[in-house]
Amino acid sequence: MTLPAGSALQDKIAVVTGAGSGMGLATVQAFVREGATVYALDISQDNLDRELGSETAVTPLAVDISDSAAVSAVFDQVRKEHGRLDILINAAGVNTPNRRATEWLDSINHTMIEHMKAGQPFAPEFLEETPDTDFDRVMKINVHGTFYAIRAAAPLLKAAGGGAVVNFASVAGQVALPMPAYYPASKAAVVGMTRSVAGELAPFNIRVNALAPAGINTALLTQSGDDHVQALLAMQPLKRLAEPEEIAETLVFLSSDAGAHYTGQIFSPSGGALLT
After folding, report:
1. Mind listing the UniProt keywords for this protein, alphabetically (predicted)?
2. N or C: which end of the chain has fewer CB within 10 A?
């Protein structure tokens, strides 16, 4: 049966993490447009209410994905209300663990860019200045949180007779970029997890893929200033940021019947920053 336009995910039940902003928010909106019922998870209830409060097909839930019990409770709710799950999108993640680390990284990036403009060498030093707590926090959100969600979702995806999982990695997890090690390490771990889980769940008709974006026009990226954006674009053959809505369309494809033969793949909407 061919579904009419705008119904690629008709009657599907989806969970989207990181749903209060950026690519996660755009994904929720695209899924609703395509006929899905969505559980939208985010650390901020205010963001969810502001962006998605009027969507009748959305259940907004404030959840810290680094909290295993809280994540399990969400999927228990999905089980009680629907008995199955068709789609899981793991979009939640951070590139720094806190405001202090963000300001520290921004200052180094700005210094590096100024040296580049002046044609002067600059070697950023991150390792010795990264405390255990910063490394642990990023891994807890980006890696543990993704694992908690997949683990809790698996029985519901099996109950549906199959489904789709898409995890958010990053081009930073696949190429060498100067930054604190916790971010590329966490995103490389997501790549490995994606491939491993794809093999385990394939016999149950559950497809598991990952996205490895580069420059996306979100507040997480642009908050560091235009110089930082331009430095990123200098590494891309395509000299523009992608819009969150573009990424959402890729997720609609991977979550729908149109993407039914893709699993264990790492898709990189990076403007050519990653060429393989």
Report:
1. Oxidoreductase
2. N
Average pLDDT, the chain: 91
CA gap 228, 2 in Å, rounded: 45
Residue type at position 164:
A
In a domain, 25, yes or no: yes
What is the value of pTM for the model shown? 0.92
pLDDT of amino acid 221: 62
C-alpha distance from residue 149 to each of 6, 142, 158 (Å) = 27, 11, 14
**Is-catalytic flag, 182?**
no
Instruction: Confirm whether 230 is domain-assigned.
Output: yes
Per the listing, tokens 């974006």 go with 213
Non-local (6+) Cβ contacts of 53 within 8 A are 60
Count: domains in the chain: 1
Q: Which domain holds residue 176?
A: 13-267
Catalytic residue among 39, 148, 183, 262: 183
Least confident range of 5-9, 73-77, 96-100? 5-9
